[in-house]
UniProtKB/TrEMBL annotation:
Residues 250-268 have a biased composition (Low complexity). Residues 22-233 form the L-type lectin-like domain. PANTHER family: LECTIN, MANNOSE BINDING 1 LIKE (PTHR12223:SF28), VESICULAR MANNOSE-BINDING LECTIN (PTHR12223). Keywords: Coiled coil, Membrane, Signal, Transmembrane, Transmembrane helix. Pfam families: Lectin_leg-like (PF03388). Residues 316-343 form a coiled coil. This is Concanavalin A-like lectin/glucanase domain-containing protein. CDD domains: lectin_EMP46_EMP47 (cd06903). The lineage of its organism: Eukaryota, Fungi, Dikarya, Ascomycota, Pezizomycotina. The keyword Coiled coil applies. It comes from the Eukaryota. Residues 1-16 form the signal peptide.
Length: 419
């Protein structure tokens, strides 16, 4: 019996796209065999370590904010042509924010680490950024770098995007699916099976590593990663071989079994969708439990701090023995003051005060008389004699009168000139 041409075509397509296990996770039944880590991937973050659940990886939690998370494949991609499928979900409050990056970079763990497109330095490769830049509801943008541009110090990182599309990704209640395909003839990005952007001028070398980073502000978005699957790709789709004529001896397939098979597939599909909804509900409950545990832990820390402060205050306060000793000292001091007061009231100090007053009065009188006598003697001794002073005045006047008389006589005896 000959194999139908359609089956041969499907087998060639499946063969052409092989999953690269070292750069993928989430394509199986569970994300990781344990919560300790994902085989072949390096996980880490700042302010929070990524949490591994059965069906997803939480890069950034809903609480607290200002956190970062990253996941980097340990092995580089050796294929020149590849196709990546990326499923994520972002949930948060109304005005929350953050950014999510899918990287294909050279030495990504070393050169990028937990950085975002705005905080990374010089890197080499491709980055797909999901954020709400410029106040938009959401966008997906592509960035390239050859290792020469320092994005961290660039004045306008947004202007370096070579392709973008608008996409409101927050609080959709379902995972969003982004597919990136890189071949020798085309580079294209689709979102939820819809074209986002494409170009034939991008050619990425082999040897880079796949990675994911997320960063959130004070009002955070919780970025959850459900799947990162990297497959090999071909430049074009192989054409199906021409359909051969059906052998007359070959019996045609009955129509009723096919219809029965289609009806039989409907129930499993509905059951699988219900299971997916329950799994999503369980993951949300786990996320709420994690946030609740964080809040309870924070409350416990605050309670411990209050207890330590209370203990310090109690140490600084006086004990009962110290208060009793101080009370006894005050009582003794009060008794001493009362005894002194009683002694003063029992004795009469009026005579002593009168004697003191008389002593002060006599001292004052004697001091006043001595000062008066001494002052008079000083004035008398320093005053000049009046007779000598009068004699000097009379002598000066006589001298002046004689000089005037002599001057008059000389002037009268002088020869006179007549005109």
């Amino acid at each position: 019996m000959k194999i139908p041409a359609s089956i041969l075509f499907l087998s060639t397509v499946v063969t052409a796209q092989t999953v690269i296990e070292s750069s993928s996770f989430g394509h199986g039944a569970i994300v990781a065999p344990s919560r300790e880590g994902i085989p072949g991937w390096d996980l880490g973050g700042e302010g929070h370590f990524p949490q591994i659940l059965s069906n997803k990886l939480i890069l950034t939690p809903p609480y607290p904010g200002n956190t970062r998370g990253f996941a980097w494949a340990q092995s580089p991609v050796s294929e020149q042509e590849w196709a990546a499928e990326f499923q994520f979900r972002a949930t948060g409050v109304e005005r929350a924010g953050g950014n999510l990056q899918l990287w294909y970079a050279k030495d990504g763990m070393k050169n990028v680490g937990s950085a975002s497109i705005y905080t990374v330095g010089q890197w080499d490769g491709f980055a797909l950024v999901v954020d709400t830049h410029s106040g938009r509801g959401g966008s997906i943008r592509g960035f390239l770098n050859d290792g020469t541009t320092d994005y961290k110090s660039h004045r306008s990182v947004d202007s370096l995007a070579f392709g973008h599309c608008d996409y409101s990704y927050r609080n959709l209640g379902r995972p969003s699916v982004i597919r990136v395909k890189h071949t020798n003839v085309m580079f294209e990005v689709t979102v939820d099976d819809k074209p986002c952007f494409s170009t034939d001028k991008v050619s990425l070398p082999a040897g880079n590593t796949i990675g994911i980073t997320a960063a959130t502000p004070e009002n955070p978005d919780s970025f959850e990663i459900f799947k990162v699957v990297l497959r090999t790709a071909t430049s074009g789709v192989e054409k199906a071989p021409p359909a051969e004529k059906q052998n007359n001896n070959q019996q045609p397939l009955a129509a009723s079994p096919q219809g029965g098979a289609q009806q039989g597939q409907a129930a499993p599909n509905d059951l699988s969708s219900i299971n997916e909804q329950f799994a999503d509900l369980g993951s949300r409950i786990q996320l709420i439990n994690h946030a609740t545990n964080n809040i309870l832990r924070e409350i416990g820390n605050q309670g411990n701090k209050l207890e330590s402060k209370q203990a310090d205050l109690l140490q600084k306060l006086a004990t009962k023995e110290q208060v009793a000793a101080l009370d006894a000292r005050l009582q003794r001091l009060e008794q001493s003051v009362l005894s002194i007061q009683r002694d003063l009231e029992g004795k009469d100090y009026r005579d002593k005060f009168n004697q003191l007053q008389e002593t002060l009065r006599s001292s004052h009188l004697s001091l006043t008389e001595n000062i008066k006598d001494n002052l008079l003697s000083v004035i008398t001794a320093s005053t000049p004699r009046m007779g000598f002073f009068i004699f000097v005045i009379v002598a000066v006047q006589i001298l002046l009168a004689g000089s005037y008389i002599v001057y008059k006589r000389r002037r009268a005896n002088m020869p006179k000139k007549f005109l």
